Amino acid sequence: MAAPILIVGQGLAGTLLAWELEVAGLPFEIADAGHGVAASRVAAGIVNPVTGRRLVESWRVAELRPLARDAYGRIESRLGRKLWHEMRVRRRFADERERRVFHEKRARGELAPWAGLADDDGFWIEGAARVDLPVLLSAAREHWRASGRLCEAACDWTAEISRRELVIDCAGRGTAAFGFVPWERSRGEVLLVETTGLEPGVILNRRHWVCPLDERTALVGATHEPGCDSPETSAVGRARLEESAADLLARPFAVREQWAGVRVQLPDRRPAAGRHPAQPALGVLNGLGSKGVLLAPWLARQWVDHLRSGVGFDPTVDCRRFAS
Ligand SMILES: Cc1cc2nc3c(=O)[nH]c(=O)nc-3n(C[C@H](O)[C@H](O)[C@H](O)COP(=O)(O)OP(=O)(O)OC[C@H]3O[C@@H](n4cnc5c(N)ncnc54)[C@H](O)[C@@H]3O)c2cc1C
After folding, report:
1. Domains of the chain listed by start with CATH number
2. pLDDT (tens digit, 9 = 90+) per residue, 187-223?
3. Are 185 and 173 in contact, with CB atoms under 8 Å apart?
């Protein structure tokens, strides 16, 4: 007999949600068509507390980071695989304007507690992290394959809605059931490069970032192309990232791979969770934008609280904010 809850998609969103449901003892199955074009497959998995040209503190990072650390830590223990890596970011000023913004914000206390030592060239961002998403996705997939909860095929939404109590859309760009939500897409590209002398705990950042995986390999990313829904790589994306890699590494490197994925986000840059207002048997956890690692554990927890005790979703992320 089919489990009452079906999660559609085993990217980052579906994985964290399924994990929390399993821990809570709630009966579910998970359907996933494969990670071929999943955004989670190409994401660097970075949590960076201060981002963007205007050096903005990531939304709710002080509250969500400990929750995320705890969630990934529990998965690590269960799967026996290292997922969470503490990192620092060496943020180098792009220009005089960015240097001024930094000093003004720091003077107003807006970058505490993240901004560390600073000099003429840039400053340190403390409290960053990297989650190893390829390991998380493949180890979790194996776990649910072994327990018979995973269906490795595309979900037929109509058929599933008619035979389940709840179908939750964690399908990333494959979302099909929440037409009233104004989904936006943005292609992102990354390079896998080989070089020498990398410091594994340090992400280099100026416009783009270089995120070391070990002493010799790093990811370089990520481009943003709002409005582009293609998961194909491009020559322009590669050229932009090579330029940044040359600037940040300042030594020879070789490009080994180039990948692309599509982020799904909302105009207010907040994710979407909760039940469909007209079809309560449909749920969603999607629109993670470029902050999926930080947001997914919090949203998954809200789903569990909702299913256990009927608690509503945080209004800032509830999908019903788009229903008129
Ligand atoms: C280049 C790049 C770099 C990034 N870097 C970071 C970063 O450093 N840190 C960070 O936090 N975020 C980053 N992100 C964002 C991050 O990738 C996303 O927030 C997150 O991975 C989205 O996960 P998801 O599960 O919603 O979607 P996806 O990862 O796209 O997963 C969706 C899954 O659903 C499946 N699916 C879709 N439709 C169906 C269907 N009908 N039936 C069955 N299965 C279906 C797909 O096969 C797929 O496996 C980056 C994104 C990109 C593109």
Report:
1. 5-45+132-180+268-322 (3.50.50.60), 184-265 (3.30.9.10)
2. 999 999 999 999 999 999 999 999 999 999 999 999 9
3. yes
Q: Is 183 in the pocket of ligand 1 (CB under 6 A)?
A: no
The Å distance, Cα 250 to ligand 1 centre, comes to 31
Cα(first)–Cα(last) distance of the chain, in Å? 37
Distance CA 37, CA 229 (A): 11
- Does the beta carbon of 222 lie inside 6 Å of ligand 1? yes
Please give the distance, rounded to the nearest whole angstrom, from the Cα atom of residue 173 to the centre of ligand 1: 8
Q: Which residues contact 147 (CB under 8 A, 6 or more apart)?
A: none
Instruction: For ligand 1, say whether the CB of 190 is within 6 Å of any of its atoms.
Output: yes
Q: What is the pLDDT of residue 141?
A: 97
Q: Which residues of 264-273 are buried (b: 16+ CB within 10 A; e: fewer)?
A: bbbeeebbbb
